[in-house]
Amino acid sequence: MSFQEEFLWGSASAAYQIEGAANLDGKGDSIWDVYSRVPGNTFKNTTGEVAIDFYHRFEEDVALMKEMGLQAYRFSVSWPRIMADGRTVNRQGVEFYHKVIDTLIANGITPILTIYHWDLPQALQDEYQGWESRDIIDDFTRYCEVLFEEYGDKIPYWVSLNEQNIFTSLGYLQAIHPPKVSDFQRFVNANHIANLANASAVKKFREMGIEAKIGASFAYSPAYAQSAKPEDVIAAEDAQELQDLFWMDVYAKGRYPKIALKRLETLNIHIDFQPGDKELLAAGVCDFMGLNYYQSATFVAAENKQKTAQTGNASQVSVVSEISDIPTDKLFARADNEYLEMTDWNWAVDPNGLRVALRRITSRYELPILISENGLGAFDTLTEEGKVHDDYRIDFLRRHVEAISEAIDDGCEVIGYCTWSCQDLFSWLNGYAKRYGFIYVDRDEESAKELKRYKKDSFYWYQKVIETNGEQL
Ligand code: BG6
């Protein structure tokens, strides 16, 4: 078994998905507060207004984390809680995160801070269209500077942007996240600006001499070719260029991958490079790769496209994108992988895919990797005795931990493992039906009930894993 002594056994969350207290103590609206209030945008019109009320219950939650033996907790800061208008510091917001961080530390849990997990201040969306304007680069950098000043000596690992590939593609291409746009060129533009903002934050971090590590978290579904037909292999390579390396190269090398740029050109899509952009990207290279892994992705050449590909969420329990005909459809298409089972939400279950992801990152970048998310979204049942028998989750996590161990033996440097999630929480497009936690939170779409916490069977399983440093799975 291969987990080093300092390996961090952790778990993760995001502000909008847990905090609630949407307008308390000087917090402003985020784009998600506004978006989820519009009927039809989320599953059963659920919002994070109350979420699991972490804002008032963090002490109880941290006590449970301690009982589980958790060594690291990844959480995000809500930008509009720190700055309601995106710029003016709100001391009450700042103090809230001091309290959370101090409570974690006092309980022996390493805090991992995510700077941006999708809840942009609505004020900046209204003022200049958020990620579509270069004005955001300075505002984001200033926000980061405040976080570095306040929490710089308490946080050893910083995650800058969470899943930039997801918030840009779901927001600007698939039109199922705010601002609900579907336009490939606008997606590429917003993404380029997000890259610049990310690089500027990393640059600021270095300039301030923060003694910690910083990286972005990337939602990586490693690409497989469905068959050995050469055209399917090329399609999977194109998918890898445009869906993976297009982000990871920027974080790790400070530049876009050459082939991806050429492929975009053939689709008549261009990146709006301005003087100084290349230098800024080069100055924003990360210390580690944050890896959010849920599933692999299988591809065929566009001409081999099947009608049956089971991708995306199960429509009866989520909001799904209905956008078709995007430019990259000419290059590759998602396909089924007959060797993999699917979750209730049609996500492919593929522990080996995690090993592949870790190995590909290591081969191309030789960076340490923090697994910043991995988990199983499932329906859970609370029994009358207050138990949740989630053996399916235990099985899923066990197989993924084994895959990490194999990848470490293959030569990958893995800093730690944050499961998604610790407590059940609000799922952006699946309400409270899709659960990920070790801790069951008793609420549903209709009612927040009393938000009582229950330990699932997986809670005790993870406790053992941590206690034995991965020896007992
Ligand atoms: C990641 C996000 O994409 O996946 C999380 O960083 C999210 O915020 C998680 O909740 C699971 O996605 P979903 O749609 O199943 O809730």
Automatic annotation (TrEMBL):
Q: Name one GO cellular component term.
A: cytosol
What's in the keyword line of the UniProt record?
Glycosidase, Hydrolase
Q: Name one GO molecular function term.
A: beta-glucosidase activity
InterPro entries registered for this protein in UniProt: GH, GH_1_N_CS, Glyco_hydro_1, Glyco_hydro_1_AS
Record-annotated active site: E373 (nucleophile)
Per the record, the GO terms for biological process are: carbohydrate catabolic process
Query: From which domain of life does this come?
Result: Bacteria
Give the family per the record: Belongs to the glycosyl hydrolase 1 family.
Name used for this protein in its record: Aryl-phospho-beta-D-glucosidase
Q: Which organism is it from?
A: Photobacterium lutimaris
Classification lineage: Bacteria, Pseudomonadati, Pseudomonadota, Gammaproteobacteria, Vibrionales
